[in-house]
Amino acid sequence: MAESTHKRHSSTYQCRRGRSSWCCSFAVPPSFQKNKKPDYSVSKLGPRSFPNSPKPGLNFVGRIDPRRILSPGRVSPIDSDPTGDTTRDIIPDPSPPVDLNSKSRSESFRGRNERSSFSDSGSGSGLDSGRGVFDVRLKLRGRNGGGLVLELNSEVLIANSEVFAGLICEYRKNLGSKCDGDGSGNLSRKMCRIEVPDVENLGIFRETIELMFEEDIAKRLLKVGAYRAIDILEVSAGIMFTKGVLSCLKYLEAVPWTEEEEDRLRNLFAVFKFDETTTQDILARLHLLSSEDSKQNLARQLVWSITTCADANARNELKSLVKGLLCKSSVYEKDQHDPNKEDLYDVCQSCLGSLVSLMEEASGTISPGKVLKKETSKPLIGRISRQVDNINWLLEILFDQQIGEEFVDMWAHQGELLSMHGSVSPMVRYELSRVSAILFIAMGTRKLHCRSEERAALLQAWFCPMLLDFGWLQRCKKGLDMKALEEAMGQTLLTLPLKHQDVLFTEWFRYFSKHGTECPNLCKAFQIWWRRSFPRGSETHAVESR
């Protein structure tokens, strides 16, 4: 009875590697009911899924849309036809088919329209000898349904893949003991059946298997492109297809990558451990092979270079480039390349020092002979404007990094610049108020959060110079939003203690009454200050006391 049952049903050998499972069966699979469409979404043995991150030994899922590329050997949908006819149409696929008559393909490759000598063990026919023998049936089950059956030559699989070699050898070992037990002793007539469940992309897996039968893999990779080669590399690494891995690495090292392809390679190298000698060229493109100190100084060197750049057009282009790379929302953000706080403030201090020297030259407190010859080759106004542009650009980076509070204190205590402000031409001194304007706008729009003492010190130092320079700022805006500046100045004044507001709003009122539109319009903020300072019912008393 047991012997009869064994003949009617296929005995199944399950080989486990790590946490994944593949199945090797010895005989004809059980027949489905006639005209009933088989369900391939779930494996009979309940196999686990194969995620993109590999498990020990058997992790190889690619991630790319399917392509129509025929597999080595006869290829068909999984079918239970006991006659062994596996020459039916393959699963439809939108891409054009690859020519199966290529001269570079080995003898172990058989197109889908060729009839092989294989038949199921129950049919009584034998297998041809030599490299043309198809003695392995590889059944692929797709994660989203569908499947493929590839009939292949075992010697080719053993020679190319350590994973398949292990499965086939274990199968033969187990089969040998069964044949010795029943006295048949004919291993050559047995078909090794290997089932791979839950394959995410059948086309990639099939194409990787096909490369084992190619004599010139590099030539084939030239046709598929870098994106698909990365998928093939992932599958090849999972099934330990060494020749495929080396060919993919060699091809990928020689071609340009898109950003998406580069990210996929980084993820792949983070998961798989390849031979260092083989991958050193690709790793050199993916990682900066230098000391940590040089990595940390890279952004600092870029910032320094921009602040000393002489060409205006190049400087503006580089400012936009580097600011985009260093901003918090940048897709290129790399923590090890970000400039630290001290580096940025060192550059700020250098720019402030240069600005002080230029203002001394403008005020006549420094002899022209002390100025470097290369600096005197350009107009003084242009050099001052360039330093102010550098400072404002650095402030944008500081605000984005949320480390700009210390600059408020630095600017509030620029005694030398304040003392020279009234002694130089208005067309020069207004450049200093451009820096103050950036700080006022940042505080008024809540991008900069400073202590009350720092805000008070800044406004006490630079509020009156701003009133003097506002007319020039209106005429030479240089990208400054004057409405936003007026609103921000009023909002910032209202954050001070009332005793400080009293002094500053009174000064504004006196200056505005004389100069009108040459002065910022803070009427809205002035009304708010008045209501807070003199609650309803106390206005008469306040006027009389004044």
Topology diagram in text:
Elements: H1 2-8, E1 12-17, E2 20-25, E3 75-76, E4 136-142, E5 147-152, H2 154-160, H3 162-182, E6 192-199, H4 202-211, H5 217-224, H6 226-238, H7 242-253, H8 259-271, H9 276-286, H10 292-307, H11 312-326, H12 341-363, H13 380-401, H14 405-412, H15 415-421, H16 426-444, H17 452-475, H18 482-493, H19 498-515, H20 523-533, H21 539-545
Helix pairs in contact: 2-3, 4-6, 5-7, 6-7, 6-8, 7-9, 10-11, 10-12, 12-13, 12-15, 13-16, 14-17, 16-17, 16-18, 17-19, 18-20, 19-20
> What is the rounded distance between the termini?
118 Å
Strand percentage lies at: 5-15%
Rg: 39 Å
| Spatial order of strands in the largest sheet | 1-2-6-4-5-3
Low-confidence parts: 1-21, 23-131
| Number of separate strands | 6
InterPro entries: At3g05675-like, At3g05675-like_ankyrin
Keywords: Ubl conjugation pathway
Function: May act as a substrate-specific adapter of an E3 ubiquitin-protein ligase complex (CUL3-RBX1-BTB) which mediates the ubiquitination and subsequent proteasomal degradation of target proteins.
Organism: Populus deltoides (Eastern poplar)
